[in-house]
Amino acid sequence: MSDLTRMTATEIAALVASGETSAVEVTRAHLDRIAAVDEQVHAFLHVDTDGALAAARAVDERRAAGEVLGPLAGVPVAVKDVLATRGVPTTVGSKILEGWRPPYDATIVQRLREAGTVMLGKTNMDEFAMGSSTEYSAYGPTHNPWDLSRIPGGSGGGSAAALAAYEAPLAIGSDTGGSIRQPGAVTGTVGAKPTYGGTSRYGLVAFSSSLDTPGPCARNVLDAALLHQVIAGHDPRDSTSIPQPVPDVVAAAKLGATGDLTGVRLGIVTEFVGEGAEPGVMAAFRESVDALTKMGAEVVEISCPTFAYALPAYYLIAPSECSSNLARFDGVRFGLRVGDDGNRSLEEVMSLTREAGFGPEVKRRIMVGTYALSSGYYDAYYGQAQKVRTLITRDFTAAFERVDALISPTTPFTAFPIGARTADPYQMYLADLFTIPTNLYGGPGISVPCGLSEGLPVGLQVMAPTMADDRMYRVAAALESAVGTFTPPAL
Ligand code: GLN
After folding, report:
1. Is the pTM higher than 0.90?
2. Domain total of the chain
3. How far is the CA of 291 from the centre of ligand 1 (A)?
4. Is residue 85 situated within a structural domain?
5. C-alpha of residue 154 to centroid of ligand 1, in Å
6. Which of 43, 370, 379, 382 could share a disulfide with 162, CB 3.0–4.6 Å?
């Protein structure tokens, strides 16, 4: 393997900026790595070789012309297939969008291009970002580089696996209930869900619009912060985008890396350290808490009783929004069309297309959501869930009056074997037990590797108040400075 694929984004950018290596060389090294390992890992749904090399060449030309390059210029990035990429296939892991080449770029993708990053391709995901293992992709599962017989998390398992397999130093994910943080945790990588509205949803294929949040994935905290800085910030094309400056997450990551947390108050969520998590996960978490305390943090336990209702509330709100959002896939406007033989009615073609194009989990969500919103049931299900959402937000607000950030294990369990949780949907939903409250509240959350359990990575989650994304980076970087980064056994 070329050394270039082992480097951090920060190191690569410095080499490109100084001219010691070219963006084209860096890109070739990663494309070679993908060619060597992705048959086993299956992190990518599409590798854009020509587009990547052209983008790299453009960076090299700008440098040669004496232009000052941005902090991530020339660094390869893998993009979850949930974001529209102009002229490059975008499937959302679904058959229903097979063959669709969007005529435009998502705002995040446009910002990545403007920053001079090099998009390698699109990564595998659970269909429409519904899942926790990438097994619900219509294109086959992604394998965890730590153990190829295990899942890499989901829905953004492709992005996380690409990082852990050294196929890309940076990746983009989207987090509706945990899809950035949970894959981060089970692959030993860093995944950050920004404040809702802190990153643009324009061009993100919608699952649950009040929860969907694109964000950065990386192998270390500083790289994630640098990527965060590039993609975040107000976008007039997204009506829920926050018109405020982005918190200085890069400065916060650097401050955290000094390993000093004096004066920082952290709250362990009582409800998440009880019976919910595996013993190995709890052991790694407890050791990390000791490390945080040694660095000067003041750690207390804080009870957030309504967090226990987050999972059921989420599984009403997210499917409700999805049942509305996915109505647009009708066989007319995008991708797949089935049964259009000139004799069938429009309704029949729509129905046949949706029957063939959506997988079982997506259909389950559409049915649950349609039921929850139906007349006579609306108040009992959707209405109640919205009330629970308000109570969860109140628990967060009350907690943040006492502490600067909350912490917990990111996931209750480490990477499980492929096939172990597909028989019972509820078993799969449990993977997001600890990540979902943050989405319902709208604040930022990050997962940072904190140790191993039986040779598999464990993540620690830091949750901060809305628009205080910098705080979570500080704590995560401090922990990283104490425990280090984690490398999977060689592929
Ligand atoms: N696993 C959760 C779900 O299936 C969260 C997915 C996500 O964050 N996109 O809904």
Report:
1. yes
2. 1
3. 30
4. yes
5. 7
6. 43
